[in-house]
Design a protein that fits this description.
By secondary structure, this protein is an alpha+beta fold. 24% of the residues lie in helices and 24% in strands. The chain folds into two domains: 29 residues; 172 residues, no CATH class. The chain is elongated, with a radius of gyration of 22 Å.
Length: 226
């Protein structure tokens, strides 16, 4: 009889433990109101359009832009809070996006051959991962560089990294701080201010998503082989 009671008690404890674990995981995975709002406003990209029709916009597609023959069209959008991933488009096609599952928290970057328009590299550098500095050092003069932040880019932006971005035309990289939204398009060896950059400061008084500011986006026509 005592053995049966002990087993029953052990079973009850095991069931209780499982319920507690399930509750904890459910709580941790539950999205905050700010995350839900960001996804609602900007949509969750489950798929991306590769070739949107001329002058027409579709959810998840790159805004289609016609540029002079000696320029490349591009579009860069930062992430929204830590819920909706960034997007980087070049030559009217998506290179990185949440829909393609090739973006990450931190700094997202695409490197392009400035003469041919070929994509040389696309990668993301998460909050505590290494490698961004080494990649920046390999960028050649004339390579086009497109950058989009997601959640918090500041951890990756060491003094040396900021200096290299400044050499590519960034005038705002020294001002990027915790959880700011930052988008930038420049080029290796530019050594003058790029007109393609936007910084939205993290400020609790003006933030769109609680602890995060509104996403930043920019687009235009980037000159070939500057």
């Amino acid at each position: 009889m005592n053995t049966g009671r002990i087993r029953h008690k052990e079973l009850c404890l095991a069931v209780t433990f499982v319920i507690i674990i399930v509750f904890i995981f459910g709580f941790l995975l539950k999205e905050t109101p700010q995350q839900e709002h960001a996804k609602y406003v900007h949509g969750m990209e489950s798929s991306d359009c590769v070739s949107p029709a001329l002058f027409e916009a579709y959810p998840g597609c790159c805004p289609h832009k016609v540029c002079p023959a000696d320029h490349f069209p591009f579009f860069v959008r930062s992430g929204a809070a830590n819920a909706v991933g960034p997007k980087i488009c070049f030559n009217n096609r998506i290179v990185m996006s949440g829909g393609q599952s090739n973006v990450g928290l931190g700094v997202n970057m695409v490197i392009v051959d400035g003469e041919t328009g070929n994509i040389l590299r696309s990668d993301f550098f998460e909050l505590i991962t290494e490698g961004l500095l080494d990649i920046l050092k390999t960028i050649q003069k004339g390579n086009i560089v497109l950058v989009a932040s997601y959640a918090d880019p500041s951890i990756q932006l060491t003094d040396e990294v900021r200096e290299l971005f400044a050499g590519m035309g960034s005038s705002m990289v020294y001002s990027v701080k915790y959880r700011d939204s930052w988008v930038f398009a420049g080029a290796g060896g530019l050594n003058k201010e790029s007109p393609f950059e936007k910084l939205i400061v993290n400020d609790q008084k003006t933030n769109a998503y609680g602890d995060w500011p509104e996403m930043g986006e920019l687009g235009g026509c980037f000159p070939r082989k500057v």
